[in-house]
Amino acid sequence: MKATLPRTKAKIALILIAVVIIVSLGIRIYNSYRFHLEKQTRFMMDTYVTLYAVGPEKITSRAIDLALDRMQEVDEKFNALNPESPIYAFNHRNVPIADEEILNVIRYALKVSATSGGAFDITIAPLVKLWGFYGDSPRLPRAKEIEDTLSKIGYKYLLFRDGKLDKTKADIAIDLGGIAKGYGVLQASKVLLEEGVASALIDAGGDVYALGKKGRKFWKVGIRNPRGEELLGYVEVEDLAVMGSGDYERFFIKDSRRFHHILDPRTGYPAQDLSGVTLIHPDPMVADAWCTALFVLGPGKGLEIIDKISDMEAILITTEGEKLYSSGLKHAVKGLGEFN
Ligand code: AMP
Ligand code: MG
Questions:
Q1: 284: Cβ below 6 Å to ligand 1?
Q2: pLDDT tens digits, residue range 176-194?
Q3: Which residue, by CA, sits nearest to atom 8 of ligand 1?
Q4: Global pTM value
Q5: Separation of alpha carbons 217 and 212, rounded Å
Q6: How many whole angstroms from 150 Cα to the centroid of ligand 1?
Q7: What is the 3-state secondary structure (H, E, C) of 196-253?
Q8: Phi, psi of 129 (to 5 degrees)
Q9: How many whole angstroms separate alpha carbon 11 and alpha carbon 37?
Q10: Cα separation of 99 and 293, whole Å?
Q11: Cα 252–257–261 angle (5° rounding)?
Q12: Residues 6+ apart with CB under 8 A from 322
């Protein structure tokens, strides 16, 4: 026997099906509007900066544009090699720095110098120059050159006079390369928020800030292995910066030895013992500065100091390949199996 539906029942069923299709289509369109993922990349700060933002397209594309513009502005202003920057004028013509934005970053940099016992020191510029890390062909200086240059290093030669940054020695020059990228990322995140974006990822050449969540999920950020392409693992984050410092960023090999761009202000040579530091903190500027500081401090002192600074976690990788985790991070790093 053939089962037939009465005509009215068939109609109701058809209408119900149509409603279900329309509603699910509507939800899809609404979600693709609300959770649209926009991405843009620009070259600045010596690297490729990629911004991802989740939200209605109308909002995200404008927000990303403005955030990247802001980062570019920070890059130009804070770059010691830009002849137009106040840093350049300070270094080459002894013009005191009056720019409030730069002064605020310097004030924080000086705090890191004091807390790290001078491991982080923005007066490192003459040494970076001597080693040739401002150019394309870095070289190993002679011991005497290093010794002479060390007399031009010391954050204690900086002082504030009449609300401006001045120096007590003419040869003093500063380099904000260890902190400016983090500050730029912080500024970009502020612009995104002001423009109505609550969910974004800023990736400045592997230095990352996760704003809010990725829709309903956490952002997944990979942790770099200083030797090799493979990641060490990943962390799931929200409103956190994950920044790295490493001997793989700018270096040269001479007589089988690696010489890199993070210099120990106490010896004049590249910091030894560590090959990479990944640091997690809510403020990208803090994360950037401390990442460089911990790299110079090395494994022992580095781990000791992390515990004294609130909300800071880090992974230190020694040149021997040993991985040292701060107490809060030990179980937070996940294996790559679940990364994608
Ligand atoms: P980062 O990649 O954040 O670790 O910064 C590295 C950059 O910081 C270098 O390229 C230098 O411009 C600068 N730098 C190198 N050594 C130091 C140091 N001991 N303290 C502060 N800045 C440094
Ligand atoms: Mg840094």
A1: no
A2: 999 999 999 999 999 999 9
A3: 178
A4: 0.92
A5: 9
A6: 16
A7: CCCCEEEEECCEEEEECCECCECEEEEECCCCCCCCCEEEEECCEEEEEEECCCCEEE
A8: -70, -45
A9: 40
A10: 25
A11: 40
A12: 299
pLDDT, residue 101, reads 98
State pLDDT tens for residues 72-83: 999 999 999 999
| In the block, residue with structure tokens 């950020």 | 221
Tell me, using a 6 A CB cutoff, whether residue 245 lines ligand 1: yes
- Identify the bridge partners of residue 314 per DSSP, sorted by sequence position: 279
- Please indicate whether residue 243, judged by its CB atom, sits closer than 6 Å to ligand 1: no
**H-type alpha helices, 35-138:** 57-78, 86-93, 100-115, 125-130
For ligand 1, say whether the CB of 173 is within 6 Å of any of its atoms: no
Ligand nearest to the CA of 175: 1
Contacts of 25-34 with C-beta under 8 Å, sequence gap 24+, read 33/57
| Tokens 């990736």, residue located | 203
Residue type, 262: I
What amino acid occupies position 280? I
Q: Which residue has the tokens 């204690």?
A: 156
Cβ neighbours of residue 181 closer than 8 Å, sequence gap 6 or more:
45, 204, 207, 288
H or E element at residue 19: helix 7-34
DSSP secondary structure, 300-322, as one string: HHHHHHHTTSTT-EEEEEETT--
Q: What share of the chain is helix, strand, coil (3-state, %, to 5)?
A: 40, 25, 35
CA of 134: how far to CAs of 109, 138, 261, in Å? 20, 8, 9
Q: How many helices (H) and strands (E) does the chain have?
A: 9, 14
> Sorting pLDDT into bands at 50, 70 and 90, what band is 4?
low
* CA 120–ligand 2 middle distance (angstroms): 9
Reported confidence tier of residue 270, pLDDT bands at 50, 70, 90:
very high
> Which two structure tokens, joined as six digits, stand for 277?
């530091």
